[in-house]
Amino acid sequence: MSLSFLAKKTWHTQRTDNVEQVWLAEQKKEKEEKKLKELQKQIDEERQIEELRTLQKDAGLVTDPKQKLEWMYEGPGSAVASEAQAREYKLGKAYEPTKQSEEMSQLENKNVAGSTWLDNTSSNENELFSRLNQDPLYAMRQSQKRDREQKVLQNPLAMKRLRASLRDELTAYEQKRAVRKAAKKAKKAEKKRRKKEKKKRKRASPSSSPSRSRSRSRSQSPRRRSPSPRRRSRSPPHEKRDGYGLRKGRVDDSRGPRNLGPDRGAVAAREREAAERRRRPQREQLTDEEKARRLAEFARDGAAKHEAAQVRARRDG
Question: Where do the domains of the chain lie?
């Protein structure tokens, strides 16, 4: 029986993909072994160098170097000389100022850009303000702005144009303000007039009942004086009892059929008001042109009054 069918299985060792996977795994293992050998070699070299440094230190040939990272966090103001220079200065060496120290002294006077960065600790309270005021470009822009302002102030023609523009703007603002004030005043007067007319129509309207008119007449009539306490004590007040419309033998006809209709006086007043309203000429509504013309007149009157007030104030002052 032939065994050729085995080449068709996925696990067969002679298949191309299986052979490729085996080759890739072998290559990966070789690379890892090579890296491990290089790392081991590097570690051995570093150990040998460290042993040599230890031997030199024990023999007194070299000093132990201090490897620290504090210099990364120190600003330019905290820079100090090296230990050798410090030892020389202690032994009596004269101080020699360098160019760098002179530049640092110029920055320490707090009058140039970047001077606030000399502090060891940066303040976060006014960081934005410091950036704006200590930025050289910002300082340059500010100086250019001051130069332009000085040129404008020293130029009489430019100042004259500036004053004229300011005067025109002020005049326009005053006119607008006067127009608004006049319109507001006219609106207020119109509202007051309408309120008066409404109140007048309400008084003359026949809707007021006779009982209300009688109560108004009673309220308008002078009050009677109350009897003295001595008189009240002598004669007690009589108790009024309802007699179903009968009082002292007379019939109360205030609710009779004669008084069910409207008051004759109110009807006559209403008719007179209607006749007067018909005889009164109808008021014509103003057009847009007339409104604009009247508003302009109000504005001119307001401006004239304002100028007169200013003249009086100058004269009094």
Answer: 15-59
Token pair for 79 = 């820079």
Q: Counting Cβ atoms within 10 Å, is residue 299 exposed (0-12), middle (13-18) or buried (19+)?
A: buried
Q: Which of 138, 158, 133 is nearest to 148 (CA)?
A: 158
Q: Which of 112, 121, 120, 110 is nearest to 79 (CA)?
A: 120
Q: Residue 130's closest CA among 147, 119, 142, 117? A: 117
Residues making up the chain, counted from first to last: 317
- Tens digits of residue pLDDT in 215-229: 555 555 445 555 554
Q: Is 53 exposed, middle or buried (0-12, 13-18, 19+ CB in 10 A)?
A: middle
Render pLDDT for 69-102 as a digit per residue (tens, 0 to 9): 666 665 544 444 466 677 777 777 777 766 556 6
Residue 132 neighbours by CB under 8 Å, 6+ apart: 138
106: tokens are: 């110029």
Name every residue whose Cβ is closer than 8 Å to that of residue 130 and which is 6 or more positions away in sequence. 116, 123
DSSP secondary structure letter of residue 246? E
Q: Is the Cβ–Cβ distance between 298 and 179 less than 8 Å?
A: yes
Q: Which residues contact residue 262 at a Cβ distance below 8 angstroms, ignoring those fewer than 6 apart?
A: 206
Instruction: Tell me the whole-structure pTM to 2 decimals.
Output: 0.23
Residue 182: name the closest of 293, 34, 21, 48 by CA.
Answer: 293
**What per-residue string of b and e applies to 155-194 under the rule 16 or more CB within 10 Å gives b?**
eeeeeeeeeeeeeeeeeeeebeebbeebeeeeeeeeeeee
226 backbone dihedrals φ, ψ, rounded to 5°: -70, 145
3-state class (DSSP) for residue 226: coil
